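A reminder before we start the practical. When you read a complex entry, don't treat the lines as separate problems. The point of joint prediction is that each chain is placed relative to the others, so the output describes one connected object in space. Small molecules and nucleic acid strands, if listed, are placed in the same frame. In the example below there are three entries. Take a minute to note the order of the lines before looking further.
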Amino acid sequence: MPELPEVETVVRTLEHLIKDACIDHVQILYPKMIEGDRDDFCRKLEGEHFRRFERRGKYLIFRMDHVTLVSHLRMEGKYYVQQPEEPYDRHIHVIFSLKDGRQLRYRDTRKFGRMFITDIDEDFSHFNDLGPEPFDEAFNAAYVRSFRKGKKQPLKSMLLDQSFTAGIGNIYADEILSACGLRPGRSCARITKKDEENIVNETRRILSEAIAMGGTTIRTYTSSLGVTGMFQNDCCVHSQKICRRCGSEIHVKRIGGRSSYYCPHCQK
DNA sequence: ACACTGACCTGCGAGC
DNA sequence: TGCTCGCAGGTCAGTG
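Here is the predicted structure of the whole assembly.
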């Protein structure tokens, strides 16, 4: 499941592979993948060049000369750069044929991903609800305090809330709380000033380590270069049976509709 | 305003 | 073996 580190890896990989490539034409095999007018989508992308590659939270942003393509991988979305003669299966939903003969293919077994285009100058009203990036200095202990004020939701739900900070998903939320020694079900109203600092610092530490390793792979993620993340081997609690710190049995509890893994001994 | 639930999808594994 | 059922999870609409 792509979270911030995986999306960052995809952005960097695609920049390496298709920077300045020109789109010849676009085929949409599953129309619901595209938000807005599909004909417009295809027509406006024809002849455009992939110029800059950015990420905002879990969104991929491809800047062209006249339009911007925004893509969200949700759970299982992946991009591949392949030759037209390479076979593809029924999970390929969008094909960008490039003028150099290659194809950028979007594959998504569960069809949850979405993409859309905006004008180049659009200020991305789409992103208005996203909180600060974890590495932005606006994400700090004072911000955590102001965000949680008046709220009683579980810490896990707060970390998953993209308006809190953009890019954290289920796996990293569990790992961050494990590193902080806080149970996922703990109310955000009942943490200390030190906990606020820990949440900020551990979020940055864990995400940057994961980016350095090229993202996590638990089930399906591989980047278009075929790079497979290694962070899964470093998970302390998520999908684990035994705590890597103390050896206790890991508990699983549904919080906010998500499976949440924690160590009852290390996390209070 | 906040918090929770179901829908969107498909594949996979457990249980009968 | 073959079926059904629950689960996986990011986001958003709907509800209390």
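Discuss with your neighbour: Confidence is low (pLDDT under 50) at residues 217-223 of chain A. What might explain this?
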